Amino acid sequence: MLALITGASSGIGRDMARVLSNKGYDLILVARDKNNLKKLQEELTTNVDIISMDLSSVENCKNLYEQVKDKNIDILINNAGFGSIGSFRKTDMNKELFMIDLNIKAVHILTKLFLNDFIKRDSGYILNVSSASAFQPGPLMATYYSTKCYVYHLTLALYEELRRMKSNVKVSCLCPGPVNTNFNKVANCEFTIDALSSEYVAKYAINKMLKNKLLIIPGFKIKLLYIFGRFVPNKLKLRITYNIQHRKTK
């Protein structure tokens, strides 16, 4: 059994690697931070290959696939991504384009390439890491929310296509709320509600994925917010979300 995890050098990706290794999976771990990948490799008990690569590059995504396509990967976890906070008119456009490349393009390319292999084999799991932010627009984090919405809708659409094909390939979308990771440091913000531990989210996500759960939402509060949000008018959701993001700003 073999799993490939992107964004595996820290946070949820690193803890997913630990969970899967404990379940007996060999791993291919991908991230830019080679030192952290090496530390994780030394810690884990199963066979672990590490690949230091910037997946914001389309060519790198294709090269990654070419490197590993013959290894019969059973699980693909698209976890690499980051966020940023601030008024859309003031945020750095180059940083946002980099975010779009990593949060959307990398997920799109790797999902498409590996999905076709999985379909031919009629087996495999794809877990795309989105966010609870995918459920509504996000003033003051407009680009990040939009990227996660793309991942969310892409995954749900693939689920229906696979279901109608009667395929045994399974896709899941992880949509956590705040998690104690390096995310808020990179995004330059602070969470205003209690964050779940990365270890809990990783274990919960892997277990639900292996049970073929489509939409994975860790934490009771976030589940309630998801249900509540379906009945709230868009303009009210925008006001609420703006106030939440405004309080996050350092």
Give the key terms.
single chain, 250 residues, alpha/beta, seven-stranded parallel beta sheet, 14% strand, globular
Question: How is the secondary structure organized here?
Answer:
Blueprint: E1 2-6, H1 11-22, E2 26-31, H2 34-43, E3 48-52, H3 58-68, E4 75-78, H4 93-121, E5 125-129, H5 142-165, E6 170-174, E7 179-180, H6 183-187, E8 196-197, H7 198-210, E9 215-216, H8 220-229, H9 234-248
Parallel strand pairs: 1-2, 1-4, 2-3, 4-5, 5-6, 6-9, 7-8
Helix pairs in contact: 1-7, 3-4, 4-5
Structure description:
It is a single chain. It is built from 9 helices and 9 strands. The termini are far apart. Strands 3-2-1-4-5-6-9 form a 7-stranded parallel beta sheet, sandwiched between helices. It has a two-stranded parallel sheet with strand order 7-8. The chain is of the alpha/beta class and 250 residues long. The relative contact order is 0.14. The longest helix is centred in the middle third of the chain and has 29 residues, at 93-121. The chain is globular and about 50 Å long.
